[in-house]
Amino acid sequence: MEPKIGLTKEELSKSIKDLTVVLSNEMILYVKTRKFHWNVTGNSFMELHKLFENQYSTLEETIDDVAERISELGGKAIGTMKEFIKHSILEEDSNFINQNEMLEELLNDHEKIIIQLRKFIKNAEEIEDVGTADFLTSILMDHESKSWILRKYLS
Ligand SMILES: [Fe+2]
Predict the structure, then answer these.
(1) For 41-62, how does the pLDDT look when each residue is reduced to its tens digit (9 = 90+)?
(2) Hey, which of 43, 63, 90, 126 has its CA 20 to 30 A from 84?
(3) Residue 140 belongs to domain with CATH number
(4) What's the domain count of the chain?
């Protein structure tokens, strides 16, 4: 059954398309942050081990919210790694890098997501999908907060 919420079919699919990219980015970043939680070494081991755990745990909640938002708009949430990689603007990390490189890599990914979210928020505003615009704004703010923490370790 299609949602009758004042948005046309085309408008709904526009938002679903952007939300699918957001879902894919969050998944790639989640997996990467979890990998860094497992493999971090060095003098900040325990601190970064815990920080990364905290970050991937909240990313996991975001992932669930994004997938459910897609469903709320009448879409289907993709769920294979292949599809996530295809739709994401982020690259997976298959190397074993040191703690500073991990921080830089994560910061870089969060910043890329933030920049793209600004575009998606504008797209949602243009079609008056205020729910999605507001939802994406809260995700953007969470990435800004995570970026701020990562940046503090690097400055
Ligand atoms: Fe763990």
Answers:
(1) 999 999 999 999 999 999 999 9
(2) 126
(3) 1.20.1260.10
(4) 1
Span from the CA of 84 to the centroid of ligand 1 (angstroms): 23
Dist. CA 60 → ligand 1 center (Å): 14
**Pick from 152, 145, 118: nearest CA to 133:** 118
User: pLDDT of 68-126, one tens digit each?
Assistant: 999 999 999 999 999 999 999 999 999 999 999 999 999 999 999 999 999 999 999 99
Q: Other CB atoms closer than 10 Å to residue 82's CB: what's the count?
A: 8
Residue type for 12, please?
A: L
d(CA 155, CA 107): 12
Closest CA to 122 of 4, 14, 9, 8: 14
Ligand 1 geometric centre to CA of 53 (Å): 7
